[in-house]
Design a protein that fits this description.
- Helix content is 51%, strand content 10%.
- It is an alpha/beta fold.
- The protein folds into four domains: 170 residues, P-loop containing nucleotide triphosphate hydrolases (Rossmann fold, 3-Layer(aba) Sandwich); 61 residues, Helicase, Ruva Protein, domain 3; 114 residues, Zinc Finger, Delta Prime, domain 3; 96 residues, GMP Synthetase, Chain A, domain 3 (2-Layer Sandwich).
- It has a five-stranded parallel sheet, covered by helices on one side. A five-stranded mixed sheet has the order 8-12-11-10-9, with no helix packed on it. A two-stranded parallel ribbon has the order 6-7.
- The termini are far apart.
- 34% of the residues are buried.
Amino acid sequence: MYQALYRKWRPRTFSDVSGQETVTTALKNELKTGRLSHAYLFTGCRGTGKTTCAKILAKAVNCDHPADGDPCNECAVCRGIDDGSILDVTEIDAASNNGVDSIRDLRDEVAFTPVSGKYRVYIIDEVHMLSAGAFNALLKTLEEPPAHVIFILATTEVHKLPATILSRCQRFDFGRIRPEDIAARLHYVAGQEGLTVTDDAAMLLARLADGALRDALSLLDQCASVARHIDMDTVTAVTGMAGQDTLAQLTDCVARQDAAGALALVDRLYRSSKDMERLCAEWVTYMRNLMILHTVADPGELVVAAPQELEQMHAAAGRLGLPAILHIMEVLQDALHRLRGGVSRRVEMEMAVLRLCDPRLDDGTAALLHRLDALEARVKAGVPAAPAAVAPATPAAPAAPAEPMAEPAATESPLPEPIAEPPVEMPTETEEQPFAPWAEVLEQLRQSCPPLYGVLCDSTALLKDGALVICTENALFTQLLKDEGNKKLMAAAIQQVTGTTYRMKLRRTQQVQKPENDPLAQLLAAGRVAGVAVKENE
């Protein structure tokens, strides 16, 4: 019968245990010197070797020919403990035997001397699951057991154990195994099983295991059922991951505030049966790496990634900035909680993406800091602080002008003719018509002249009598166009998109009232009031 890799390659000596040198060295020294404790407590996260070390210790204390603190695994006692024929070593699952009666039976058994070995060893796994009554029944026996009895308690949640239990045990903490150690063990097991694993795939499996070697071996076993040669694509397909490239694309869409592109990526992942909760968790880990790279000059072991991936993440961290990274992480963490209890995981993920692409939809502290950071960047670039702090990268095409567009008193002033080319006569329009390519013109301006784009990002455009009428509430547009270079950039953007040179006119529209509950507007207003008060006091 086939045996799972994590069972088949479970270490049989302390020397084979990966990543727990501190624990194994201490246990081997106690065995060599004979200074054995009557009760041990092994604590740590899952898959780090607690139960494995407990079984090795049970064999080592009973082995007929121990070698340097390790069991020989050849004598009758070691073989009997391995195959379960010797009853001197008893393993108890506290999750299913957590009552007082089970502990009372155990307390009665400890009086009997061992049959084949030197000690009777009781391994109580997941000991934190015992009831309060069971803990009380175990206290006296655990404190003063017979000389031939050793207790080994194992738990993943040591904080749930009573202080009276902790004080009676010699405690060993099992840390998370380093990704490098897990990857090395995976290469060894794969070589013994006739598999080939690339370095990138082994490191990815190690990262997914999150310090648990048992989980890494289980993932390797799952990948081996698909292919004998395991690479990054195999691991990504088997585990249902989105992949580093997809996470980078999603982050780039957020940086460009391209909501349509981000939603299209989420839709593609959803249609390919990617789990939205896992996607969100992967994205959080990716953003955590960006945060570390942005903050720490030499991340070292804080970020485990291939050199090419590190280079890409460094570039992404530089483009985003720390406030934006923290905002993304906060939104994703909130979405992760909602995904676990929401009705539609896809909808929850799409809502999170929209909040990320437009921080104005989020009134949290991290979103406000992100908007302030963007506002400061715009001011440093020469764009005054009057426009909205964060503007969408791809504005929607303007709709047909509503009735209020014509009602307010509007002034039209002809702008200087572009110098590049003489105007081309256009058919006379009897009525105002929406200028559909205006969104593309704005996108072109965003790349060629960010200041112009900043003051025109909320504008619309109309065609009237062969002229292009730009409708905006921002008075700074007229001032910027006094510069000849800005005029040429404006005309060039229109020419590149439409292939035609238009006469341009400006229409000032009424300013739209900002929402009263916008935290950024309130903060800016408070700053202006404070500035006026300071001047009056002076």
